[in-house]
C-alpha cells in the first residue's frame, strides 16, 4: 500500500482508484501545492533507499511555490553529499564539459511538499 507523506510528517495510506496503479491525474492531485493549478504540476520520480518510488512535485522548490521541507521524505532518499556533487562537477569540467548548476552545491539536497511513496508497479 502506498503512503502519502505530508511536509509536517503526518502520513496517510493511499490506494489507486482502480485498485491497481495510480494514474497521472491521481498523482498530480496528491502532490500539487494548495494554490497550484493542476495543469502546472510537474511529476518526478525518485528511488528510495529500499527500492520504492517517491512521487514528488518537480516544481516544489521553485521560488514562487516555496513548499515546506519534508524531513520524513528526505530521510528515505540517498542523496549525494555536497562533496560528492562538487567532485562530480569538477570531474566533468576537467573533461571539458560545461556544467550549469542550479542551486547551492554546498548544501545537502532535500525533499519538499507532500509526496507519495509506493511500489514501482503502483505507478502507471
Question: What would you note in describing this structure?
Answer:
It is a single chain. The protein is α+β, with helices and mostly antiparallel strands. It has one domain (2-15, 23-122). The chain is 20% helix and 18% strand. It has helices spanning 24-31, 71-74, 82-94, and strands spanning 2-5, 11-14, 43-47, 53-57, 115-118. A hairpin with a 5-residue loop joins strand 3 (43-47) and strand 4 (53-57). The protein is globular, with a radius of gyration of 16 Å. The model has no long low-confidence stretch (mean pLDDT 92).
Q: Span between N and C termini? A: 15 Å
Q: Please state how the strands of the largest beta sheet are arranged side by side.
A: 2-1-5-4-3
Q: Please mark out the parts with pLDDT under 50 across 5 or more consecutive residues, or reply none.
A: none
Number of discrete domains: 1
Radius of gyration: 16 Å
Q: How much helical structure, as a percent, in the residues?
A: 10-25%
- Count of helix runs: 3
Q: Note the overall shape.
A: globular
- What is the number of beta strands? 5
Beta-strand share of residues: 15-25%
Order of helices and strands: EEHEEHHE
> What does the main sheet amount to?
5 strands, antiparallel
Structural class: alpha+beta
Mean pLDDT: 92
Amino acid at each position: 500500500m502506498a503512503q502519502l507523506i505530508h511536509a509536517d510528517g503526518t502520513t496517510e495510506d493511499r490506494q489507486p482508484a482502480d485498485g491497481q496503479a495510480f494514474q497521472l491525474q491521481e498523482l498530480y492531485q496528491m502532490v500539487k501545492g494548495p494554490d497550484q493549478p493542476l495543469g502546472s504540476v510537474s511529476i518526478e520520480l525518485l528511488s528510495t533507499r529500499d527500492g520504492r518510488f517517491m512521487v514528488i512535485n518537480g516544481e516544489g522548490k521553485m521560488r514562487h511555490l516555496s513548499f515546506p521541507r519534508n524531513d520524513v521524505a528526505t530521510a528515505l532518499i540517498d542523496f549525494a553529499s555536497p562533496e560528492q556533487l562538487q567532485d562530480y562537477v569538477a570531474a566533468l569540467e576537467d573533461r571539458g564539459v560545461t556544467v550549469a548548476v542550479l542551486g547551492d552545491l554546498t548544501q545537502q539536497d532535500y525533499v519538499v511538499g507532500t509526496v507519495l511513496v509506493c511500489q514501482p508497479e503502483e505507478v502507471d
